[in-house]
Design brief:
By secondary structure, this protein is α+β, with helices and mostly antiparallel strands. The chain is built from 19 helices and 20 strands. About 35% of the residues lie in helices and about 20% in strands. The strands form 5 sheets. A 7-stranded antiparallel sheet has the order 17-14-16-15-19-20-18, with helices on both faces. Strands 7-8-12-10-11 form a 5-stranded antiparallel sheet. It has a 4-stranded mixed sheet with strand order 2-4-6-5. The two termini are about 40 Å apart. The structure holds flavin-adenine dinucleotide.
């Protein structure tokens, strides 16, 4: 795999590849070590994608409607060409990629519209209600739950409301340590603007390079530094939202008792209740030091117990993650070395990464306390090399999926969250469900990367030989694993959100009264249902 620049310092990510993850310049074949591993255990078949010009898209939006949109945002901000619409078709789940690679672009928008300010968004929504056109807000396009594939039946068309031009740092309040960010800022852009002020948001999901501030908020995203900075919903202080009923301004104070917190209703709303046009976030000083280490544990169970002890002792480092035995053995913590035989991958056990950020004194104090606790629990300190290698390669993993799809290997990830007392049971149940659905020659890897005093998330990576029809093959496995989560008391999602794909399990998780509440909010805010139809609401 080619060398990647650090996305944290590169605020100008190019447009994502149309049918793969990330920067097109980094698309490439599997490294030799990974190919050998996959060929031996799973088998490979050359499976190229179609030519992008051959992907079948919807018909472009009617010219009269295009002219009306141009009157709202300017003709140069309404695009109907094949390439622009292709790049706004669906998100980046494996089903999304499989469909595009096979030439199916049927969920494409009929036009891509790029408003420049809040008033234009309001005007676009009012227009969409009048014309009964479906509106799909588009942030970074990294959804993995079908959040960008709106239902089109019954609508006069579908537009992608692309927030690309919402790319400013609007305001910084240094006394309160908050900043107002526009929703179209991608992770690296937001961090670069804040870094110029000596600040950081500290939100680094694996999709950081492309995902947007608005997308983070409405999907309740969680980043790799969640132990230190908190998940994105914990970073949001206020929101401005354009809805068909007018503007919602939320976040008049840091915390209050003024009834249910409506910010919580917007976070996780996935474009179904309104379009977020500004987000006030809490910010932290840019850390002077970032340092990473690795630990080895005899088993996943022992490593998870150590994480729980740290969380319940209030001693969490900034980054805390633990790979299970399978993930450790294939070196997924170092994507560029998958399949190679490093000291960590051949010595058995489970790899843990700890990361510390802050002032030198704060980092040293936290590191010393965590080290004493982990060593006392039986962890083996492997020093900084493997931890730093994880940090250097942490945004490279997603490129592997495309290289595997190229050789006929079906790969996808899924995640859940449950209480500590149920973690081991859910871990085993989901693995069994995936192997049961996909067969014994299936590799299931897992890690824990978000922990709480009361529980933790489990993140699974699955790889198996693609069938002649890989889509139904995966959907059956996904359904079995989702059943295993929800039927065993875990959530259908810890941070990927609901979209189209998780709706049946959301309904089971929140029950009929919960579903009624969501439907009632949708009906009052968006009575004609033009906002992201089909997403979120069961
Ligand atoms: C390789 C990969 C790795 C990932 N890793 C992580 C991870 O570590 N942590 C994590 O939390 N997630 C992760 N994800 C999932 C995804 O990145 C998150 O859900 C992200 O928060 C979505 O942001 P986005 O800007 O790309 O949103 P989009 O994909 O553009 O949109 C997501 C949903 O939000 C709606 N939306 C977007 N912007 C707005 C807005 N301004 N107002 C209203 N609605 C809006 C869209 O209509 C859609 O329904 C990963 C995805 C991929 C492909």
């Amino acid at each position: 795999m080619s060398a990647h620049p650090s996305p944290i310092s590169d605020p100008t990510s190019p447009e994502m590849h149309w049918s793969r993850w990330g920067d097109p310049a980094h698309a490439g074949p599997l490294a030799e070590s990974a190919f050998a591993l996959v060929d031996t255990f799973i088998g490979t078949t050359d499976t190229p994608a179609v030519d992008p010009a051959d992907v079948r898209l919807s018909e472009p939006l009617d010219a009269a409607l295009v002219a009306e949109l141009a009157a709202i945002v300017g003709a140069e901000h309404v695009l109907t060409d094949h390439e622009t619409r292709l790049h706004r078709t669906r998100g980046k789940s494996t089903p999304d990629l499989l469909k595009l690679r096979a030439g199916d672009g049927s969920d494409s928008p009929d036009a891509v519209v790029r408003p420049g300010d809040h008033d234009e968004v309001e005007a676009l929504i009012a227009w969409a209600v009048r014309r009964h056109v479906a509106v799909v807000p588009f942030g970074g396009g990294t959804s993995v739950v079908g959040g960008l594939a709106a239902r089109r039946d019954g609508f006069a068309g579908v537009i992608s409301l692309d927030l690309l031009r919402f790319d400013k740092l609007v305001e910084v309040d240094r006394t309160s340590m908050t900043a107002v960010l526009e929703p179209g800022l991608r992770g690296p852009q937001a961090e670069a603007l804040l870094a110029a002020e000596g600040l950081t948001l500290g939100h680094f999901p694996q999709s950081f390079q492309y995902a947007s501030i608005g997308g983070f908020a409405v999907t309740r995203s969680s980043g790799q530094s969640s132990a230190g900075y908190g998940r994105f919903d914990a970073l949001v202080v206020g929101l401005t939202v354009a809805t068909p009923q007018g503007t919602l301004e939320l976040g008049s104070s840091p915390s209050n008792a003024a009834g249910p917190d409506l910010r919580e209703l917007v976070m996780g709303s996935e474009g179904a209740f309104g379009v977020v046009t500004a987000v006030r976030v809490r910010v932290r000083p840019l850390p002077e030091v970032r340092s990473y280490e690795a630990w080895r544990w005899a088993s996943f169970t022992e490593g998870a117990a150590a994480m729980r002890t740290l969380a319940q002792a209030g001693m969490l480092p900034t980054v805390l993650r633990l790979s299970d035995e399978n993930e450790t053995a294939i070196n997924l913590a170092k994507p560029s070395e998958v399949g190679s035989e490093s000291a960590e991958s051949t010595s058995g056990g489970c790899l843990m990464v700890t990361g510390y950020e802050g002032t030198p004194a704060a980092v040293e104090a936290k590191r010393a306390a965590v080290t004493a606790l982990l060593a006392g629990l039986g962890g083996q300190n492997l020093g900084p090399d493997s931890g730093q290698a994880w940090a250097d390669g942490r945004f490279h993993g997603p490129y592997l999926r495309d290289s595997l799809l190229d050789v006929g290997v079906l790969v996808e990830t899924m995640e859940t969250v449950t209480f500590w007392s149920n973690l081991d049971h859910v871990y085993t149940s989901v693995k069994d469900a995936l192997v049961g659905a996909l067969g014994e020659a299936t590799l299931v890897l897992c890690h824990i990367s978000h922990v709480y005093e009361t529980g933790a998330s489990l993140y699974f990576t699955v790889a198996t030989k693609a069938a002649d029809e890989p889509l139904p093959q995966w959907l059956a496995a996904k359904a079995a694993a989702s059943d295993a989560m929800v039927h065993n008391g875990a959530s259908i999602t810890h941070h990927h959100a609901v979209g189209q794909d998780h709706k049946p399990w959301l309904a089971e998780e929140i029950g009929p009264v919960g579903v009624e509440i969501l439907r009632a909010v949708k009906e009052r805010l968006d009575p004609t249902g033009v906002l992201n139809p089909g997403v979120l609401i069961p």
